[in-house]
Amino acid sequence: MDKTNWKLLKLLEGNGRLTYAELGKLVHLSAPAVAERVRKLEESGAITGYGAKINLEKVGIPITALVECQVYRTKEREFKTLVMSLDEVISCHNVTGPYAFVLRVAVRSMSLLDVLLERLIDLSDTNTMMVLSTPVSREMPANIEKGAELELD
After folding, report:
1. d(CA 75, CA 70)
2. Rounded CA gap, 112 and 11, in Å?
3. For FRET with 32, which of 20, 53, 71, 93 sits at 20 to 30 Å CA-CA?
4. Helix (H, G, I), strand (E, B) or coil at 58
5. Which Pfam family, any one, appears in the UniProt record (predicted)?
6. Among candidates 3, 29, 1, which has minimal Cα distance to 143?
7. Residue 145: how many CA atoms within 13 Å on its side-chain side?
8. What is the spatial distance between Cα 63 and Cα 77, in angstroms, rounded to a whole number?
9. CB 108 within 8 A of CB 59
10. Pairing verdict, β 124-130 and 63-71
11. Cα–chain-centroid distance for residue 2?
């Protein structure tokens, strides 16, 4: 992964709708050269998709919470199956510590959050934290290309 590829990733993370010509101007390459690099990044799995960033509050889903789940012994497979079936779960992270999973969930109301938590209670103890704001939200660390540049030297 060279410096140019890191720049392409950052640019596409910020705006996945940039054309190859626009990207080329920003990284000082031709549009066909950029297209080839992006194709290789997609084929390698470095780029896994493109999508719109949705403001959940603006579409009527104002409540976001983080739910720490301490899954009961022998219930992990059943827990994962349940979590994958829950539409309210935006992300699920398997983590270290007493809470094996951290879920990010979004719901329209507190009563719907309560219903969701009730579904989890048979398989885990939970601790819920309400998200007040998200001052930083990225797919990659900022300035990652600087670290890559140091590794290349």
Report:
1. 10
2. 37
3. 53
4. helix
5. HTH_AsnC-type
6. 3
7. 11
8. 28
9. no
10. antiparallel
11. 23
The one-character DSSP state at 57 is: G
CATH 1.10.10.10 maps onto the chain at 3-51
Structural domain 56-130, CATH architecture: 2-Layer Sandwich (3.30)
pTM of the model: 0.83
113 residue type, one letter: L
At how many degrees (to 10) do helices 3-14 and 20-27 cross?
A: 130
Beta bridge partners of residue 66, listed in sequence order: 104, 129
Residue in the block written with tokens 């990659």: 140
How far from each other are the two terminal CA atoms of the chain, in whole angstroms? 13
Other CB atoms within 10 A of residue 22 CB: 14
φ/ψ of residue 105, rounded to 5:
-125, 155
- pLDDT tens sequence across 26-61: 999 999 999 999 999 999 999 999 988 899 999 999
- Residue 69: closest CA among 134, 139, 112, 129: 129
pLDDT at 149: 53
